[in-house]
Amino acid sequence: MQQNNSITEFILLGLTQDPMKKKMIFVIFFILYMGTMIGNLLIIVTIKFSRTLGSPMYFFLFYWSLADSCFSTSTAPRLIVDSLSAKRIITYNECMTQVFALHFLGCMEIYVLILMAADRYVAICKPLRYPTIMRQQVCTILIVLAWIGSFIHSIAQIILALRLPFCGPNLIDHYCCDLQPLLELACMDTYMINLLLVSNSGVICSSSFVILMISYIVILHSLRNHSAEGRKKALSTCTSHIIVIVLFFVPCIFIYTRPPTTFPMDKMVAVFYTIGTPFLNPLLYTLRNAEVKNAMRKLWHIKITTESKR
């Protein structure tokens, strides 16, 4: 990566400088991260090997859980390790890589959530055409387009980051590298850079949130024409999706759709959507989705039965 300054490394200040609080952060976020990875891994393995979860909804859920676990991995391990480190040093290249990964995986989550909403819309509002519209080939193409769109978004973000000159200090008042805290250290007028950031990340977050909420309003409105059993099942799935959308998008909109001003709660808001929300997502899908829970039970039953026969 081309460096436009003399800075070769940054120091992450993290969430706190208090030694006791650092130990608490280590324990809390280690548990959250392990819970995130285990939960998403269970969903991925269940969908991969279960014969009953072959619908497009679970195809998209597979990739969403994959992106979710990787998204958390882009920030959580460093936060956990840095909580016990005397110096939280991150090199310039590592910092730029983290910026790219954070936006690439975060954007991928957004696009997959949109695809999941589209799948529910077709399934509920156009059930007779659902098998034709949501074919396996179509779903695969949509996922590929989501990866491509996320890559383009991340390239745009990293280009903005690489254009920032740094001449000191190199203290990042955050637990990870992102464009907002890096703008605070840049030795230049960052108004235009922030404007581009808002017009990219901010517009993606805001427009996607509006599109998703409108789509689910339409879906929920159409449920009045379904049977009581079908309405209950669809409502349970859609409610989980809506909760995930609100938990993920509200903090993102708060961070990426405002002038270049930092607030004391910025780091905690970022922690919530980069580490907290990925931890809650598997719980929302496994605890509220009867099909996923039944598929998990069957897989574990088969596994235990197979092991006992050996």
TrEMBL record:
Gene Ontology CC: plasma membrane
Keyword presence, Membrane: yes
Primary site of residence: membrane
Example of a GO MF term: olfactory receptor activity
Recorded coiled-coil stretches: none
Gene: LOC110575788
InterPro entries, per the entry: GPCR_Rhodpsn, GPCR_Rhodpsn_7TM, Olfact_rcpt, Olfactory_Receptors
Upper taxonomic lineage: Eukaryota, Metazoa, Chordata, Craniata, Vertebrata
Name of the protein in question: Olfactory receptor
Domain G-protein coupled receptors family 1 profile, residue spans: 39-285
Role played: Putative odorant or sperm cell receptor.
Organism, scientific name: Neomonachus schauinslandi (Hawaiian monk seal)
